[in-house]
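Entry type: protein chain
Record version: 2
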Amino acid sequence: MIRTKGEKVFGVINSVILLLVIAAVLFPLLYILAASFSSGEAVVQGKVGLWPVDFSVDAYKKVFADSSIWIGYANTIFYTIFGTLISMALSLCGAYPLSRKRLGARRFFSVFISITMWFSAGMVPIYLNIKGLGMLDSRAGILLPFAINTFNVLLLKTAFESVPDSLEDAAAIDGANDIESLIRIYIPLVVPTMLTVWLFYAVERWNGYLWSMILLKDTNKQPLQVVLTSLITQIGASQQESITDMYDATTNFSKQTVIYATIVISVLPMLVVYPFIQKYFVKSVMVGAVKG
């Protein structure tokens, strides 16, 4: 197929724009990675670019030796695993009934749920509601109030609607109830969408910061993101202090390099998991594009 002149120009412009976007995304990541493996003095003096200067792993040693960071890391893993499981279970319980035509007032419930994508009660009512339920400064306050994402429920609903009703009818003839039909028929047929929604929830839980900062005062329950923010705040409050002396003048790291090392460790699991699930995004998007 011969491309027209306009198509060639569009291809060049599109490539340039994509390269600029890639550069804008990769530069901070590469800088953080390089800084985490550089000496504290080199980072403070602004010598680090995209390659480590005075290569050092002391910042990572400090991270591995800091119990508060490991506690935060363990809490993040806990909230991600159990929060995602709860979110997936509740989302399935909401999406499957909404996808069945025999559900009474199905359209009303779908519209009612969809409205919550654009309108929210606000932070103060949500906080007061959590406080009234006695879930302040508790793990339940992080896991339960934010378990459902409307977009993910509708995405699963659309995926379930793409499964032929004849399969459910055949299962019903064999004596399968709704739960058995969901587990044995629908879930295996919408695995790409399930994995996509799982990743959405996992990333949301892993990066959760705002409500964790508001609701959790016990440092033993705070996730890594809150701990990391505390370190950054300490740097901002110590601008007149030599950053290389904030921990130990005899070491080869600073608070900045420790923060960068913590960031690398915190994003590493998502960077490892994402490539294996990325291919399912296209299938999930196509499901949403064909049936709404």
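Comment: Confidence is low (pLDDT under 50) at residues 242-250, 288-292.
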